[in-house]
Specification:
By secondary structure, chain A is of the alpha+beta class. Chain A contains 14 helices and 14 strands. A five-stranded mixed sheet of chain B has the order 2-1-3-5-4, with helices on one face. Chain B has 149 residues and is α/β, with parallel strands linked by helices. Classes of the chains: A alpha+beta (431), B alpha/beta (149). Chains A and B meet through helix 4, helix 5 and helix 6 of A and helix 2 and helix 3 of B.
Chain lengths: 431, 149
């Protein structure tokens, strides 16, 4: 007879996630009676801080929302305002914005794979234990991360809270000599990124098969990063302006982050959602590697998120090299801007998933109202849904420690950025 | 043997202590060159591992809070025993975690000195408190004297 004990697991502070959150899990007579991902990091009120600010200040203000993905916040805000102001970005600015964003993907994904997620799959408690087991792979990961940081630094003057973006383009263009030096290193890193994809794909992952809706940006050509329309795996394809009519946010008492839903259902944003929707938009060389390693898309195994990040590192390196191939310094790195009143809406793919901004602006170029929907709050309902299904499949009768570790593994697939999401982990299990 | 001197900090109040030491060393004529790398770092996280890869000798200066009087210097040598690396997230990836990671990778420089300057406050926009400013200047003179010797 199966043991139908009652269990209560409380993870008071989730390790290896960004920011502060906790998990409460109660199991009674073999059923989950309570499962709450609690985001308790205090709300940060960024949307309120932005009110009254001039449009020229916005890129530097929103960069402070996240130390890992500042580029995402800057470029989402910039694209929204540039659309409202009718600014035609030069081909140079468009290309370099994408390169800048690729740097952030490389940096953020390398960090998450090697320091936060991979230790789970090698029986390691942290990256330091993993470094003893797989030193070459961890060093490779740190090299890739550093390269991503350098790409961010190239356009942003620094990799943490970069300051290079202005509405209309960039404040300055890097010198051809600096770009050439970095391009050689990006080229040299390509085999490392391919080896990383093969390594990630060979990691034995838990079996997991879940039905979920993927949501990501999509473009007519190319893999959507810095712009695109919003697509869902059920066929939805809308402009970013229509986000509010299809997606809703609600507050739950146990979390300082808002919960998002699409047609009343949780949905997934992030690397796996992007690959699920945009595998046909990958460059040929990346597609060929996926075919070679047998990575089948779309995938319904959330643990493939780690492999998806590795694939996107290779994609980002490939894209950065393509766009920097014929680098030249433009006549001007920015286009002139004339503010006007109206509503500015923008959406880009942050490393963790879809990031959506909306600004009501007055005629003097000041923010009347701002709304920012980060990826982690969109994933929050999906994480809770995943935990319920994943724990049921894993077996609720397992020991507390095994349940706790499994929950943490599931949560880390999403690379939740709690600091960004709070408007977020500590596990409590009660049986 | 390349000497790497890193002052680690942030713009908030006494948390600038590591940066002040670098400023003072540069004022005393210590500059990056063939054998020396000197830089101010803003919370480098795991990025410190790659930076230390080429170092033969590293001196890391950071702000520290232990309850001792502000301006007190604390010295740590990884050769003395295990480093106190705590739970790791990329937001909270500190100097000891980075050194522990470098150690696990077998890439710790042959000689590492971590010098902590006890601070009083680290509030955004605040000035550096007098005891921390004077401790930073004194530490810079000590390091410069060792280099000259």
């Amino acid at each position: 007879m199966t043991d139908k004990r009652s269990v209560a697991i409380h993870v008071p502070v989730l390790a290896r996630v960004e920011g502060e959150g906790a998990l409460d899990l109660a199991i009674e007579d073999g059923d989950i009676t309570e499962l709450r991902l609690r985001i308790f990091e205090p709300p940060r009120f960024f949307e309120k801080f932005l009110e009254g600010r001039h449009y020229t200040e916005i890129p530097d203000l929103v960069a402070r929302i996240c130390g890992i993905c500042p580029v995402a916040y800057q470029l989402t805000a910039a694209s929204a305002l540039e659309k409202l102001y009718g600014v035609a970005l030069s081909p140079w600015s468009r290309a370099m914005r994408r390169v800048f964003y690729c740097g952030e993907w490389i940096q953020s994904h390398s960090l998450h794979i090697h320091l936060l997620a991979a230790p789970d799959f090698f029986g390691c408690g942290n990256a330091i234990e993993l470094a003893k087991q797989a030193p070459d792979e961890v060093r490779r990961g740190l090299r890739l991360q550093a390269l991503g940081n350098e790409l961010m630094d190239l356009f942003g003057a620094r990799s943490v809270h970069p300051v290079g973006v202005r509405i209309g383009g960039f404040h300055a263009a890097p010198s051809p000599a600096r770009v050439a030096a970095l391009r050689d290193r990006l080229e040299a890193a390509l085999p490392e990124a391919r080896a990383l994809v093969r390594w990630a794909a060979a990691i034995p992952l838990p079996a997991d098969d879940q039905d979920f809706i993927s949501v990501a940006l999509r473009q007519p050509a190319g893999y959507a990063i810095e712009r695109g329309d919003i697509a869902a795996s059920d066929g939805l394809l809308i402009e970013p302006e229509a986000y509010g009519t299809h997606f809703t946010e609600r507050h739950e008492p146990h979390s300082t982050a808002l919960f998002s839903s699409y047609r009343g259902q949780p949905y997934l944003v992030g690397p796996l959602a992007r690959l699920n929707l945009n595998a046909d938009r990958l460059p040929d060389a990346v597609r060929a590697l996926l075919d070679d390693i047998g990575f089948v898309l779309p995938s319904r195994n959330m643990f493939h998120s780690l492999t998806a990040r590795a694939v996107e590192i290779l994609l980002a390196l490939t894209e950065a090299l393509r766009l920097l191939a014929d680098y030249r310094v433009p006549d001007s790195p920015w286009a002139p801007v004339t503010p006007r009143a109206g509503v500015a809406t923008g959406a880009t793919e942050a490393p963790r998933g879809l990031l959506w901004h909306r600004y009501e602006m007055d005629g003097a170029g000041r923010v009347v109202r701002a709304r920012i929907v980060p990826p982690t709050s969109q994933n929050q309902a999906r994480i809770e849904e995943d935990l319920r299904r994943s724990l049921a499949a894993f077996g609720l009768d397992r020991p507390d420690d095994a349940l706790r570790l499994h929950c943490e593994k599931v949560i880390r697939n999403y690379d939740p950025c709690i600091s960004c999401a709070t408007h977020f982990l500590r596990l409590t299990v009660r049986r | 043997m390349t000497l790497h001197i890193y002052g680690i900090g942030s713009p908030s109040g006494d948390d600038q202590a590591g940066w002040l030491v670098v400023d003072a060393l540069e004022a005393l004529g210590v500059a990056s060159g063939a054998d020396v790398v000197i830089a101010k770092l803003d919370r480098p996280g795991a990025g410190l591992v790659a930076r230390l890869d080429a170092a033969g000798h590293a001196i890391l200066i950071d702000a520290m809070q232990s309850g001792a009087p502000p301006g007190t210097l604390h010295r740590f040598d990884p050769a003395d025993g295990p480093l106190p690396a705590a739970d790791l997230s990329s937001h909270g990836f500190g100097v000891f975690a980075a050194l522990a990671l470098a150690q696990a990778l077998g890439r710790l420089p042959p000689r590492v000195e971590v010098i902590g300057i006890e601070i009083a406050q680290a509030a955004p926009g605040d000035a550096v408190s007098p005891p921390v400013r004077s401790a930073a200047a004194k530490l810079a003179r000590q390091i410069a004297a060792t280099l000259a010797g």
